[in-house]
Design a protein that fits this description.
43% of the residues lie in helices and 13% in strands. It has helices at residues 38-47, 61-72, 82-90, 93-101, 115-131, 149-155, 169-182, 192-197, 199-215, 227-233; strands at 2-7, 16-23, 26-34, 50-53, 144-146, 186-187. The chain has a 6-stranded mixed sheet with strand order 5-4-1-2-3-6.
């Protein structure tokens, strides 16, 4: 099995992409790049067994409805409900689910933070995939799934804090060491230094590992009451509670 992990950014320059080959109880990083244009990403996603994208696959339904209504009229809100109303406009059902399920995790708002620009790029990529006949299910049931590397780290027993940025290399080095100790079957090979030097590279590897978890059914299912929201807003593939990282390599 080949999984692909994409740490998507608004610009190609900061986009990390990792290919992992799974065989014989091991996972080998066969290719890792930081810097990928849209056509390269589409081609890679079209050939991978499962792709994990670190980027929202959609916007909150209530936010979309709000924008449409605002175009035609003014929107009135009961002052007593304003805070909760803004929260529902800002965060998707999956964002709120992950926040409740994973202590210490607070995702970005796709409708109120800069991640929205990256999501615009993602939407265009998904459209190109659909035009090629590749079914894109935002619930993650198809070959594409949304991932959140920080949440995956927590579920696998790692500290997700302070490993991002140019000044965070000491912590990133530690995290890579911890990851290799816990997952001795993971072969970073010539790309180990890239993971230590760049959080974009490391997140791409983590995204690819989460894609593997999703392919094996080792992620939390979409709750029955959230299926409709997941189909339009997207759903984060969250590794199941209690599943050990070693289970990723348990089968071929």
């Amino acid at each position: 099995m080949q999984t692909l992990g994409i740490d998507l950014a608004a610009s190609p320059k900061k986009t990390g992409v990792a290919w992992l080959e799974w065989s014989g109880g091991k996972a080998r990083v066969s290719k890792l790049v930081v810097g990928a244009a849209d056509d390269e990403l589409v081609e890679a996603m079209a050939t991978a067994h499962k792709t994990g994208i670190d980027c929202p696959l959609g916007w909150p339904r209530e936010f979309v409805d709000f924008i449409v209504e605002h175009q035609d009229d003014h929107v009135d809100v009961d002052p007593g409900l304003a805070a909760d109303w803004r929260r529902r406009l800002s965060y998707r059902t999956t964002d709120l689910y992950v926040k409740r399920a994973v202590p210490g995790i607070q995702g970005l708002s796709v409708s109120a933070d800069r991640i929205g620009v990256t999501t615009m790029r993602c939407a265009a990529l998904l459209s190109q995939l659909a035009a090629r006949g590749l079914a894109v299910e935002r619930t993650g049931s198809g070959p594409i799934t949304e991932v959140y590397p920080a949440a995956s780290l927590v579920r696998w027993g790692f500290d997700h804090k302070r490993y991002k940025g140019t000044k965070a290399q000491p912590r990133r080095n530690q995290l890579v060491d911890e990851l290799q100790s816990a997952a001795s079957w993971l072969e970073l090979g010539e790309y180990e230094e890239d993971c230590r030097a760049s959080d974009d590279a490391l997140d791409a590897v983590l995204a690819s590992m989460t894609a593997r978890a999703a392919a094996l059914g080792l992620v939390e299912p979409v709750p029955a009451g959230s299926q409709v929201a997941a189909a339009t807003e997207g759903w984060i593939a969250l590794p199941r509670s209690g599943v050990k990282i070693s289970e990723l390599a348990a089968s071929g």
